[in-house]
Amino acid sequence: MKKLEEVLQDWEAVIGLEVHAELTTLETKMFCNCKLEFGAEPNTHTCPVCLGLPGALPVPNKAAIESIVLAGLATNCDIEKRSMFYRKNYMYPDMSKNFQITQGPVAFCMRGHLDLEVDGAAAKERIDIPEAKEGSYVAHIGIERIHMEEDAGKMIHIGGDEGRIAGATHSLVDYNRCGTPLIELVTQPDLRTPEEARLFMQKLRQIYLAIGISDCSMEEGSMRCDGNVSLRRRGSTGLGVKTELKNMNSFKNLHDGLAYEICRQAQVLEEGGQIYQETRHWDPSAKRTIVMRVKETADDYRLFPEPDLAPYDLSDEFIEGVRAKLPELPDQKAARFADEFGLSAYDARHLVDHRATADFFEACMGVAGKDAAKLAKPVANLAINDVTAWLNASEDADLAQSPLTPARAVELVKLLAEDAISSKQAKQVFSAIMDEDKDPSVIVEERGMKQVSDTGTIEAVVDAIIAANPDEVARYKEGNTKVIGFFVGQCMKEMRGQGNPKIINQLLAKKLAE
Ligand code: ADP
Ligand code: ZN
Ligand code: MG
Known about the structure:
binds magnesium ion; 17 helices; 40% helix; 3-stranded antiparallel beta sheet
């Protein structure tokens, strides 16, 4: 199979996502007052409504409607005042009612969009966008709709491989998840690369977390995504036949699954074959996709209006009440950081990647007081690099409870800004704070880490090293400027790693040029 890069020279990928999010922050289910709780003893949160016993009547959860309207407003959707619920009929043991309540052609939220700023190596995948060559561009991604539906129960297959149904001896079903309020966002087929799909998902997750409607755990399945993808020849505008990758449960799987599928489709098409509209499963360990089933059509579900629920007629008052609850969204926060503290757009954007790093940065700026503008950049670096790596290293890492208080972070950054320690030492101090729960000044003192920035001391070392290595000096003068690295290394060694590298470099450059 060809590489993605190569495939994208001849083919344009067309990608649309369907993203499900469970409204986990609500107390109760969508149409009954059973408690919403992940990981509870199976079948302990059920009642006649969510089990679909004959005669039981659903009552909509108002807080869930508020959540979906909030999601719509946060993603630039129009809020439809008039919409209604439908029954989507199917027979499978995970839903004992034999139908799922969902929305029809008109959803609560329609016609939204999100803008993605794409940069780094993946930006170059968009060979159709001239400015992408310079390393960044903005992609405008349309959102078709966000609708409300209820989740089904959970099947547990016993005896098969990796919990799959194939080869299982029997299956169990847990109805606790039945009736969990679920919102599904459907994008327009506007995404063009796996990286854009990944970024869209990441941005949507940040927004949902900011508005507090879901815990968005990809591992526990409270946020999951189906990726639809087709190919067309560069320059053509029609849509090809798509395949759908089901239930991608991590950003990496979404990216890698789509990348594989694009390459697979290109190979089939280039060999004169045909793509079938089918649902496929991405197997990350085997690194390939396999067919799950051929596509069912809407007709198969006999969708019809839910007779037990009246159509909605949302009031302006209700919608405006929800709008008033909109918090500052990640994009707005990034713009404010850039504006207030003079950060680059890039730094500001990556700070808001995590709620934790954004809050941490703000707290540090509060501590920094009049030095805020001066320390903004190094604090942002600390947050984006070291702190983010620390957060990513463990699942239950909690920055707010960690030894790195904003006061300690500001102290650390000041030591670096004043050249009291080198950037390498700053990394060591960071680890030591996390491991030993001590102040930066104490760590620096205990380990004798003080960086030597005294020009006189450094000059003496530089002179000695230059005098001791005449051959290397000659090579430098012949134009091999790379040997400066050798001299820096020797000086550092002589100073036991405590020399200020900036000053060493400056003095070496000056003296070697003499
Ligand atoms: P389905 O009927 O299979 O559910 P939809 O029309 O509802 O398909 O679209 C589902 C998702 O697939 C949407 O995100 C949409 O943008 C995307 N999509 C639709 N057609 C294509 C296509 N030809 N190629 C890629 N994505 C597509
Ligand atoms: Zn119930
Ligand atoms: Mg669909």
